[in-house]
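Researcher: I've got a protein sequence and the SMILES for flavin mononucleotide. Could you write out the 3D structure of the bound complex as structure tokens? I'd like something to compare against our soaking experiments later this week.
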Amino acid sequence: MTHVDWIHFRKSVRKYKKNNIEPKVQEALKAQFEKVEPIAAHAAYDIHLVEDGRQMKQALEGLASRYMLVKAPHYLVLTCRNDATDIFNLGYIGEQLVKYLTLQNLGTCWIGARLSQEKLREMFPVDESHDFSIVIAFGEPVAPLEFIRNRKRKGIEEVFYGFNTLSDTDKFIAESLLTAPSAMNNQPWRFYFNGGVWDYYKTLPKGIFSKALRDLVNVDTGIALYHVIETAHSLGSAIQFEVMDLHKGDQNYMGTLKICD
Ligand SMILES: Cc1cc2nc3c(=O)[nH]c(=O)nc-3n(C[C@H](O)[C@H](O)[C@H](O)COP(=O)(O)O)c2cc1C
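Model: Sure. Here is the predicted complex with flavin mononucleotide in place.
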């Protein structure tokens, strides 16, 4: 597995071996916490390692969350302020750790279960301003990771408008969108090719959906953006991404991406 094709090996792993990962791998992972790069300069975030996965159950809130939690030897808990930009950034940050773990041949699974912020604070110190959290389960997978050729996804032209007008390199970069995970596996992100730049939008669930689902869409869009930017970097392309101030303008507009060849 390489820095380019890790996206094809990553999948949501729901069956883990019971054993803990080696302490030195845990330490190396913690060192990565300092190396991740935010997409929004002013976004706040924090990352915690739950070394003993059995502790995670106690932080769950509500019955549905019990069913959502995937049993794993370890978890990462990422926290931020309850703010659309922060949550978008959290997806972008978390997927960098997913990349790191995947390259160690470890399995990962993002978990959208609701956590009690009170109980989290009993497990580790959480910044006072942070009241949003998301989890990534990880550990040694029962079945080794392998290159995945077919995933259940929308077609590329449904998520990238103007895909056919892109250069071959840009098509390769755009297609990395389809390897990204999303909470409902509905790829709630759209790119529009707009005179040399790519405008990035999210698609919010219609009808009376809970705020929780909308928050997960912000996480999803951060994750997918990381797949695109990381793939462009791996081909040697420089990327500029200007984050929209998510409190202003079109609610669904996330920002604009420019690939500088
Ligand atoms: C933000 C987020 C939350 C998720 N929450 C859960 C979850 O609670 N339980 C679960 O089994 N899978 C969860 N998933 C995994 C998705 O179901 C999975 O990514 C999707 O079905 C695509 O499959 P793949 O990741 O194997 O490509 C979540 C994924 C994301 C990105």
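Model: The domain at 6-139 is CATH 3.40.109.10 (NADH Oxidase). The first helix runs from residue 6 to 9.
Researcher: Great, I'll pass this along to the crystallography team.
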